[in-house]
Design brief:
Layout (H helix, E strand, L loop, with lengths): L1 H91 L7 H10 L10 H5 L9 H26 L4 H8 L27 H11 L2 H39 L10 E4 L11 E2 L1 E4 L4 E8 L2 E7 L6 E3 L5 E3 L1 E2 L4 E3 L2 E8 L4 E6 L1 H4 L1
Antiparallel strand pairs: 1-2, 1-5, 3-4, 4-10, 5-6, 5-9, 6-8, 7-11, 10-11
Length: 356
């Protein structure tokens, strides 16, 4: 009987130990599982954070590309507007002067902003949204619509190119002066060599200017140019500004990435060859400033000491900074110069020492 009791005690003790072990082992397994779940969640959060940061970085590049698009469109719209004004003057001027400069203008009227080359489409392909984020998906959709509109504008610009005036002038034996769409009007159409043309060329041109085909060609050009301005001003530029606003609403910290703005011109110490660096006083506004001495002459603004991105303005000391715009005239003195690239405005004010 005693041995039986001892046997039961041992079995009970062993059974209790097994239960304790099973409880302990189950607890350990639960802790391990919980640790794995937490690690997976942390990894998911970290992956999502990395993806969101990558999305914001790519979005900032798109934001800057759209800003460059708008600068180009501004320049194109202004220049096409000048072409429209020139066509209207040619159509309604009864005392039209036929000279070598007119030859250059007529070749220029056939030119279009074919140099317009946007990086937005390429950068847009690198924009990878989180498919679970409705905000990101909607933003990417809006940008996609803008890119498609941009491609449509470029196709329309190429399709609407006219060569009627150029072909007729060449058929008359008048040599092509190869004007620049944006640069020639800045020089008042003096950027060509008139010595390559003779008196016979002007006689032939006078006959053409007084003909019905000449007026028909001008009316056709006028319609094409007016259509392009409508696309630029009423459609694409407005669309681009809307996209930039949507990006700022999504990421208020987005910046315009200009890294080396300077002034250049014969009024500066570096002349037209070397920019004088400005300093960035407000990165959020892309606001650049400098206090410097200027001589009588002209200045412009440019990025990275290169003409690929440059801004001119009005013949005044403050106004709209225009992409590939006219040289800004200044007089000798000490100046405080500000360039706000978020608003495309500049101010050139006499330094305080010059005022007193």
């Amino acid at each position: 009987m005693l041995s039986l009791l001892r046997s039961l005690k041992r079995k009970t003790t062993m059974s209790s130990g097994i239960r304790k072990y099973l409880i302990y082992a189950t607890g350990e397994l639960l802790l391990v599982a919980l640790g794995i779940l937490i690690a997976l969640q942390v990894n998911n959060w970290n992956s999502k954070r990395i993806a969101n940061n990558a999305f914001r970085d790519s979005l900032e590049l798109v934001y800057n590309a759209v800003k460059t698009d708008l600068d180009w469109l501004q320049h194109s719209g202004i220049t096409i507007g000048q072409q429209i004004d020139t066509i209207n003057r040619l159509l309604h001027d009864p005392l039209l002067r036929v000279d070598y400069k007119l030859v250059h203008k007529l070749f220029w009227l056939d030119s279009d902003p074919t140099f317009f080359d946007s990086d937005t489409e390429f950068l847009f392909t690198g924009l990878k949204e989180d498919i679970s984020s409705m905000v990101q998906k909607e933003l990417v959709k809006e940008i996609s619509n803008y890119v498609n509109n941009l491609k449509f504008f470029i196709r329309e610009s190429e399709r609407s190119q006219s060569t009627v005036l150029t072909k007729t002038l060449l058929d008359l034996g008048i040599p092509n002066t190869f004007p620049s769409f944006g640069y020639s009007p800045l020089t008042d159409f003096t950027d060509f060599n008139p010595s390559q043309m003779g008196a016979d060329d002007l006689d032939n041109l006078k006959k053409f200017v007084g003909s019905k085909p000449f007026r028909s060609a001008l009316f056709s050009l006028l319609n094409n140019k007016s259509k392009l301005v409508g696309l630029i001003i009423d459609n694409l530029s407005q669309d681009g500004r809307s996209i930039m606003e949507k990006i700022r609403n999504y990421d208020p910290k987005v910046l315009l990435l200009y890294d080396d703005i300077g002034i250049v011109g014969n009024a500066t110490a570096g002349g037209w060859a070397q920019s004088t660096p400005m300093f960035i006083s407000d990165p959020d506004l892309a606001l650049w400033e400098i206090r410097t001495e200027l001589q009588d002459g002209f200045i412009k603004f440019r990025n990275r000491n290169s003409w690929n991105q440059n801004w001119g303005g009005d013949p005044t000391l403050s106004g709209e900074a225009m992409y590939y715009g006219r040289d800004i005239p200044v007089q000798k003195g000490s100046y405080h110069i500000r360039l706000d690239l978020s608003a495309n405005r500049y101010e050139i004010t006499p330094a305080q020492s010059d005022v007193n």
